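Field reference: sequence -> structure
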Amino acid sequence: MTQPTPSAQLRAALDLAGRGIPVLPLREGKGPMGNCRACRKNVCGGRPNMKTPGPCACAEPCHAWAAATADPAVLTSAPWAPAWRQAAAVAYHPGGAGLTVVDLDNADAVAWARQNLPTTRTVPSTRGEHWIYLGTMTSPNAVRPGVDIKSLMSYARWLGPGSGTMAPLPDVVRALAVKESAAARPAASSSTVSAPAGGGHCPHRSPAYLERGIAMAEQRIEEAPDGIHRTVFRMFLAVLSAHGRCGCLTETHIGRLFTAAQTRGESLRHCEDAWTNARTQLGM
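Structure field:
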């Protein structure tokens, strides 16, 4: 029986995997494939705190960046075949390859990089450039106007090999993450809940109250028929309004909301913008 010809995306993915670069398929709109049925709403628990690279325990490309793999047997397996047939592009996990991508989203950002960052390998993008360094770090977005960092716990679209020699990750790039506004990146909060000012009863003393709020927000994001940007913002606003002032929200809760939004096609950047806007509206 004749084997089907691999798609251009799968051929590119296998080439990258052969070089030890973990890859995953992207659907139209540059978002990752949605979680499989068994992992919808992250009921499987995802990878442990989504802190480590590698495929999910399920057989399909789930959980966005954490699905990235350099194993050709996984990439060509039957469960991955539908994803590659639908794929519009290939992404890779920079941190899993020991790299950091400085994503420069416009001409002004590129001009800033040329004046302030060490020369390294550059790859043209749709609106700007990717500057790629050897080394890994956290992956904050919007560290400057038009500048995102993609390394650990993130993915970047594969745009080609680029040109130039990769330089070691410089301190000036690491410092961008330190300078990032706390409002743009939700910090981990303690799971210990204290009574609010004034001594009133805190409803979050019941874990079920918080769990219902997160689950309801996930469900409404997942089932929104349209206007996904507006729905994501409204759900983030609702969760923060009810649960954001007493320290009960953790990165795990926030990760569940972001995963639900990204499954519906929201980019990480849009999620972070919506989160920041919701906090600003609530005066947090």
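Note: Residues 207-223 form the longest helix (17 residues).
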